[in-house]
Structures
1.
Amino acid sequence: MFTFLKKKKRGQGVNALVLSEEGIAHASIKNTLGQVPSLQSCHFTAIENKAETASSLKKFVQQHQLEDKAIYTTLLTSDSNLIMIEKPDVAENELRQAVRWPVNDSLSFDVNEAIVDVFEIPGQKERGRTPLVYVTAVQKEFLKQRIHFLQEQELEIESIDIAELVMRNVAALLPEDQQGVALLKLDATQGLMTLTHDSSLYLARNIDVGYSALSVAQNSAATSLGEPFNTDGLTLEEGMSPDQQRALDDIVLEVQRSLDYYESHFAKPAINSLVLAPLPHEVPGVVKYLASALGLQVRLLDLNAVLDCAKPMSEELQAHSFYAIGAALKQVDSSTLNGSVPVKGEAA
């Protein structure tokens, strides 16, 4: 998305590093046309004390010998804004400037303080409607500080993407993507869902429910029952606390609204598959509940099944490294995305 034109660093494959509230994740993937992407290495380290982030990152970089690699990273949903608007009727070379003012009211900061990028949603011209575009906006000072912080730890930043497009990279590997698929990633306190078809992002939605809410509800249910939480052979309501059911129902509502919008606004066939990204620990009953409530085919994603992994990954490692893996799936030999912003040196 935001590309930094620097001399390529030595080392095969794409190296991605992502900072999150939970810790530091790194993934190295070799992309070869016509072959399954090869995950060469994947690492995660938790950061318990935020004051130690810089020292932990420096140690992480040295431990995995990332100083001489071109690094791809991504901004998470809390770091950037993604807004859908009607495409302004201007020349293509004026598009990035033209979208700034329509999104100003949707930002928590002045658009003059933002770095803005834009990419189109495919297939809109054929529908006879004004095409829609996605505008991503990042506060310029925040981006400068993030780049500076990473560079201080001896990292050479090649490109910075956004979480929604990183999710698209993962969704493109799924067999369901050929017909259209919803991919749901639950982090600790929030979630992100993308709707893609044939490797293209059509819709992204933030969800105010994370796996912590489901886990707390699970634990409280087990405590109240005086026995381990288990949904095997039970009806949907049995074995679940009211809080867990409410959290799941919030997810169901957001998924259903998104599917309805996708089908009506993009004139696409209905999506009948929901794939849940790996969770750091098992939350029993979630797949069964979502499948029954939505009437969809729902499954939990195992990244070992869609990547050629040098070493099998645990579900916990998959969950913590999900965005790093998605960022490393970027096809660096292909042309950049529509609306990519070449920035020499640091963000301007």
2.
Amino acid sequence: MNRTKADDHTAMPELPETGSVFQVSWPVRTGDIHTDRSLRLDAIARYLQDAGFDNLVDRGAMDTHPLWMVRRTVIDVFEPVVWPDRVHLQRWCSGLSSKWCSMRVRIRSDGGGLIETEAFWINIDPKTGMPATISEKFTAALASTAVDQHLHWRRWIDPESTTTPSTETPFPLRSSDFDPFDHVNNAIYWQPVEDVLPDELRSGPFRAILEYTRPIKRGEQVSVQTGTNTLHIDAGGEARASARWFALAPNRNDQG
């Protein structure tokens, strides 16, 4: 499957029968859920971060590959995960290049929840802050499941596109929203998406996509431009991240 020609409606690669698949599980907490007890999008994004960190520790790669930057996250909610429940995550590489990769995470719950995700991650050199080559040893594990061995970056959302009709609202940031590099944590960007998702979309399978353009730093004034099914998170007169969402057909990636 050639992922270089993918767009925002492309189905995600399936769970491989062989290769390196990392697995981890934990209980859903009350801090992760809506008032209706379903798992929030920003909580899902944190789960992806936590699974990625645990995966690096499991592979003994924290010293060689400690810093990764996400450029896009795709979340397909087929059956909501609800509290109280326990989630089981399976994480594997679906696409690979010398300095970046796409990582699939399937989230299932004991109560029948199913969420499929895929994120585009770039390996960053902590000293230079620039994309860095993934080591040969680490590449071998990633390549064991990658369906695309020549992964390229291609935007799915135009950060300059207008959201018509649109509304603009301020998005105040708190000290707890920032990571050790004084950038807004990528999970925080999902909070405005949560605010505008229509209830009718949540009632069936849906896809939400978030692409990051530039980090938001402490002290910047942030606003959200919201349209019918898109939004842009702006700072300094430019879109720093953009999101899009739409309904999915009921068929789902549930093999394996």
3.
Amino acid sequence: MVTDPDSPYALRDLDEIKRRLAMLTLPHIAPLIAYAQQITAKLGDSYQIPYFDPCDGGTHAKVLFLLEAPGRKAVGSSFISRNNPDPSARNMCTLLNTAELPRTATLLWNIVPWYVGSESRIRAVKKSDVVTAIPFLKELIDLLPNLKAIVLVGRKAQSAKSQIIQLTSARFFESHHPSQQVMNRWPERRNEMLVTFKSLADFLKNGSNAK
């Protein structure tokens, strides 16, 4: 059975992972891979940074989604992706599809782009992690000439808004984190996220005239 590359959990399929790995030299994604590799070169090999997903917009992206930090599934698949086999990615995938945000207009990343934690479990992102990561974000924004919006997904990303806003003239949106724990505890947040993403889609279509 051929995996639908846009479906939740698509990266459970090893063949799909191999297909995306083979795409990393494509022009829209190669500069971003080089950028991530430069972070590792500066900080050291102990910093595990998954790849950008080549199925997203890459350097052509109009919207940058900043979540918290890569999870174990992202490290396992090698990608920051809506198609990772975990509930947070599934929720993100479903909401983005429902909001009808063109995938080629989006790019998913994290305020802290490296895995934080041990081999067995992730830990919470600390303020010091964000302080270390922010300078690298300016380099990423400079690689996105079509950037129109940044979505701060979750409190950790939102905590750095005052610093990020100095790096770009892009419009800012804020969203809840898509973790299943959040959705289970506050079911209403799923719809609130969808409203935000639909507002974002409207902004991309209508620019400054969007509400």
